[in-house]
Specification:
Layout (H helix, E strand, L loop, with lengths): L1 H11 L25 H16 L5 E6 L2 E6 L4 H6 L1 H9 L5 E4 L8 H9 L4
Helix pairs in contact: 2-4
Length: 122
C-alpha cells in the first residue's frame, strides 16, 4: 500500500509527521449544496487546529452554518465530553455559535451517506 510505504519512509527519514492521520480536503466537511468559501474553509481549519492543540488526533469538524458538528475517534469521545468547556471554547473561537459532539464518533466520508439518501429512488 502506497500510504504505508510513504509512512515507513517518512519515519526512516525522521520526519515528525510520519504518523500523522490522513486528512481529506477541507471542503469534505461541508454538506453538498452548501457554498464553499474561503471563510467557511478557514473556520473549519481553525476549529480542527484548535482541537488538535487540545490533543485530539483523528477528527473532523463538519460545517453547518453557525453550527459545528465534531466527529472524534471513539476512544477520545469521553475525554472530549470531560473537556467540553475547552472544546466549546476552541470551536467558538473559530467562529461557530453552536458546538455539537457526534456520539457516533469519527466516520470518514460521513457526508457521502447523507448525499446518497437525498437522491431519488430509480
Amino acid at each position: 500500500m502506497l500510504s504505508s510505504n510513504a509512512r515507513a519512509w517518512s519515519k526512516r527519514l525522521g520526519l515528525r509527521t510520519w504518523d500523522k492521520p490522513a486528512a481529506a480536503c477541507l471542503a469534505s466537511r461541508v454538506p453538498y449544496g452548501t457554498p464553499v468559501s474561503l471563510g467557511v474553509l478557514s473556520s473549519v481549519a481553525q476549529a480542527e487546529s484548535a482541537l488538535r492543540r487540545l490533543g485530539f488526533r483523528q477528527l473532523r469538524v463538519r460545517h453547518y452554518g453557525e453550527l459545528a458538528r465534531i466527529e472524534i475517534d471513539d476512544p477520545e469521545l469521553k475525554r472530549a465530553f470531560e473537556q467540553r468547556a475547552a472544546v466549546v471554547g476552541a470551536v467558538r473561537g473559530a467562529g461557530y455559535r453552536y458546538v455539537t459532539l457526534d456520539l457516533e464518533g469519527f466516520r470518514s466520508g460521513n457526508l457521502n451517506g447523507a448525499a446518497s439518501s437525498l437522491r431519488p429512488a430509480p
